[in-house]
Amino acid sequence: MRALSTPALYAVAFLNLAFGQNLDQIKRLEATGDINGARAALLRASEGSPNDAAALSRYAEFLDRYGDPATRQVYTRLLTLQRQKGDSAAAAVTARRLTALELENGDRESAVRSLEVYTTLGGKKAQIGGTPARENWPTAPIPGPLRSFARMAAMPADTTSEEILPALARNIVTSGYQASHSNEELEQTEFLKLIHRYLSQARELDKMAGEKKAIEVQSCEAPNVAELLRILGFRMRGGCGSDVVLETVNATRAFLTTDSGFPLNDLEQALRTNRPFRYDYRPTMVPVLFGPEYWVAGREKEKEPPDFLETFIGDPAICRLYLGFSKLDSETADALRKTAPFTRLRVYSHVLDFFGGMFEVRGGRAVVPGGQRSAAMWTELAGASPEQGGAFFDKLLAKDDGWLASLYDALARIRGPVRDYLVEPARMKRFYTAVRGRITSPGPARPVFRSNTDMMLLTTRLRLDSTGKPHIPGSLDVWKNLFINNPQAKYDGKLTRLATSWKEPDDVLEALFALSRKNAENEPLKIFMALSDLDRNRPKPLEAPTVDRLARSFRAYGSQYSVFSESRGLSDKSIGQFLDTAEAINKIRDAELRSNVAGVFDSLIGLWQIFVRQQTVPESQADGAFAALTSAFSQIRNNRELFDAGRGGVKTLLAAAPRGRSTATAEEPQEQVIDLLSGASSSDDAEARDLVTQEIMRILEAQRIVSLDTLFQLADHLESISKGEKLNNALVAKLTGRISEIQLPRAALSAVEKNSIAFGYWTEKHIEDQRRLNLRSVVEKAAGDAERLRDARGLLAPLMRDTLLAYNYAYYAPPGSQILYTNPVFVRSHDFIGNQGANHTWRQTEVLGSGWPSSAGGRLVGSLATLPYALAEAEQNFLIPAQTQALIWSDLVPQMILSAKIPRWWNVTPSQVHWVGLHLRYGRELLAEGAFDPELRAEILDQLSILAAPVRTREVGRLLEQGSAKEAIDRVTPSELFLLARELAGKRRDDGSCLAAEIVQLAQSSPREINYDSISRAFGSPKPTLANSYEPELMNLRTFPTLMGYSSRIMAESWESNTLYWAALADELAVRPGELNVRIPEWTQKLVEHIFASHLEDWPAVLKSLRLVGDDIRAKTRAASATEQKAALQEFPLR
Amino acid sequence: MNMIISRRELFGFAAGGALLHGQEGGQRPVFRIKVDMVVLAFTVTDNKNHYVNNLRPTDIRIYEDGILQKLNTFAEGAKPPVLVAEDGKTQPLVAGQKDPATGLERPDAFVGTNVFVLFDTSNFMYRGFVYAEDAIADFVRGLDRADSVALYTFSRNLSRASGLTRDKSDAISGLRKSVAGDDTALYNALLLTLRDAAKVPGRKVIIVFSNGPDNASMVAPDDVRAVAEDEGISIYTISTNEVNKDQISSGVLRRLAQRTGGKAYWARTWQKQVEAFEDIREDLGNSYTITYYPAPNPNEGFRKIAVEIVSDPGKKLRVHTRPGYRPSRTL
Q1: Domain that residue B16 falls in
Q2: What is the pTM of this model?
Q3: Farthest-apart Cα atoms in chain A, separation
Q4: Quick one: A731 and A843 in the same domain?
């Protein structure tokens, strides 16, 4: 982050002298990223001519464009000046902008005043809605403080009373019950039992709190002390006074006391000091959707009046129904409640919970995918017309155990031509019939997570060709053949028979829909998606024979296919060559050699991926380099050949990558590689590059990696010895010194004690062999035999494997990298073979051996295909949550970390960062204006509904209508803000917004640099599971729910907000683009540590953390910047 | 290895060492061996296992790889450290200001012990959770006034329930707010605690209170132990398991404690836990803490430390300390 630098201060002074001539220079300062310099110059200019409205306007708009906190203040001054000068038109624009800014900041009173000024000055008549009013549902009491109950029910500490019941319902559905060991009934889990026990204790305390609703103890000897301690499960040890210690007497009660956060320590202190103790013990009143009576329906006749809370937590179906209803907007929920009786809805609560989130009733009608065009088909399929919204959804829920509802959900989530294609009535019926099958039970909502994940993936990721037909990779024949002559096994007997008569793409789609209903591994769909993704960005689709081979090899090599997405120009031949090489490596019988060959090959391909992705290797060179790498490894017979191939591979990569700012010589391949990994080919930001370089070097050092320079020099030296040169002792000592530092893994059993089928045998043998390497002895034993001396370089191949592998590890090292800094053989322990009998060589990277003290720590196994994810996964438990431990999500966190590590911003320009910042700020401006402009509001909500669920869209609309723009903005994600601005900036460029004008102007002035494709590449996130590609991309997706079979990786990949938010923050704080390579991983770590989520899809918790961390960084950076500026001014006072 | 206070200007060798990377004289960063002050804590016991107190600096000789070291400061128990002159005479350090003789930024940091309690709140500990809290609370209350205490809890992740403080009430308050549940990543948590402790000047110990088994750590216990050795942080372990129930975990805990100068206890019952804490407290109160700047030593690997009691020519006394450390490398 750059504060006002001394040169910038001189620039300011200079610019101040001749401002009129220097607007261009300010623009240039801005374009090069010297925002502070530009800001200071504009400030000086406005201060130098206090009556110049144009100068002040320029300054105000500049601040506005960068989200400066002084913006409002300067606009206020500008408005006064413009009004003084009688420039009503300009003043009206300023007043409107001020209104929006004030609403964004939650300053309603000022906004109302500014809006009045705006209308007085001739602006459009507008009004800010009334004070926010929520739907006031009747409430039910929960005994004790909200915070205590939230702790016991695993909810965030800041859960509001409105959020309590939906969160409780979710936690009870997911964690409250388990299958009983003895019968088919569900039994309560320990989690739920604890809630019951807590409520019981809380009621006792509530009774003790009495009318005052406060637990009061006047002194240590007060009569109620004993009773209070009994309830709490403690007793006093020692007499009253400083000796008093509270100790457990009833473990069950004491556990509840501490686990619920009762202020026991305060009580103990009060007893010790004989001071009064007071603890507010008011019950928490929580609003209940439709009122408590609705949920205890049917139990009124019981002897005791039913207790809402006990009824609620005692029935998982009620909780699930509540959860389902909480996902609906009020109109839809009301329509459904009025149409369907409670008892029936309770039966279908699982369907409502999973697939009800997209249900929408508007004006009494159901909003169905395909609208009017498909309405008749929806009527036919559901058995009720969408015209009767409540009845339609009632029927939809009750139909076929959830299959039709799941199709509705999948189609409602998408927009555009694919949806138009899929909702064509006849086609929709055909696909529905396929996915439904003949036997409907068990439906897709029965398991813990929705089971027909694949259908949602299919509908989301399907592409249409220019002909308007679905894109079928290769040709129809490829897919027919695959279904008929599948090399592994038949996918489905019926589909195999039908495949013989396939004639059109819909036949393939129908088969894929049909397979989506199966719980088993849906390989054809995975193949279809992977190959469609490969074709997606290619200028020319893959040829049919290539697709055929890839489809048939999917089971063995499918994990590797994301490699082919790295370069859009990768030829069919090169892809084929890769598969040939992989097959050839599989045939190497010597396990150790095979492991080393796979390791070197995989590591070089990994480096190729990195270089291509960060554009170190230009696209024009990518295919050639790839082909050279793959062909070099197709016939390796021994370590000497492996060493030569590896060395050749390094040479190939370095030849394909322009050196840029690297100062390394040709004799320093290690330095060249590290420089290139650190952005030397494209970035001028030496400071940021140095930080990244140092990080890589520290990891290589911690892993005791032998430098590539040393290895190559030794190989050359061995060649020279074979020609008669003497042994270079210094060079050999360099290697020997390093080897002596390599430790064996600190495991319970040594490699010798293990046998070849034991976990870790091959990796430990690999390390042991390196430790035993004595090059001097080898040279002596060769006794001048030239061929034996040449062979000796093969001994260096395993070391080279680890060096190349370490570059990959170091590049993707997650923030903190505790494992890489603590386990000195973590890289060397990478197991490319895995357990005997289960060949892991081409599988995804997996973390194995964690939590096993005798295993010498966890290690990674398999190929490097998912190395970034595996590293992040291995490291995630080292993050320290800011609030309560153990609420870090196991799948979301690795994806967030890899989204911060895979993209690099060496090629990004300050203008691109600024463009993203402008979008997010303009998105906020639009929302704020939506609070007093109904037409704009309708437009905004229409756009928002593309990404947000109906319930959230409605909520944002309601808040805007009520003038609560700040609260509305809080509910909109950065990716949604970006999309809003993208869609509306062009349309509204003449509306006087300086942000919209700048967005348009920047795009026009630098169309090659500033466009949505380049921004998507720069600030998107990698989606290896969802899109089979590590290329960062913005897909503008609706966030996915948790899906069975993919865990939550796809859900995590659909979250695209983080990098956009960081970019906007960087723009605001004048962070250099190159610096993002260091800052974004740091910021992401903080983000993760501050997430306090109560469930897997708790995106608001992520959003909250994102803003919290952003505000903290903002405050600290501005404070540091102010201090630096002050110091700089003292040192170089401007005269 | 303790890099508590950098004093390279006084000791030329501190920044010397092996050139491990890149070219000499070039602009690339190079790795160098970095050795600053070493803090060494030890206890001395007689043949009846009684602590031997009141030893003087002149009674003690420290060797690293057989090389005699010159003592810099000396302290016994929670008493303030004294500066040791060339002739073995001592003089008090002035608290709260930089000491010109030693270069210590915070001499008062060497008064008392910084105790990090690492409390296992994972599922394994569920049953004995509240009794364990009581035992820890008692221990914290009984610490010397000069001692500071931090209270960390862990299950799958670490949680800093209470930062390092001399206010024992703060620590107990943090302890009482801990939440139970989830997997056990003992060695991950211990590593993170070591990293925190390493940043604090002065004498540091970690007390691990756990059931023992680990089912989620990514780092191996012996790798964590190596960090503790290098940082000079003693680890005391109190397992609520039986010693023979899980022999792998028991062996690991024992090794961790022995190799870092700490002790291992197996205490299933609350009473045993209280006794274990008593013993640790006694150990802390009867230990000696000395500091020294290592004499030049070409060894870049593990440096063996030996403590010799001059006044015990018959070698009847037993010294309990860590076996050595590895100097670190920095860019």
Answers
A1: 12-110+286-330
A2: 0.92
A3: 104
A4: yes
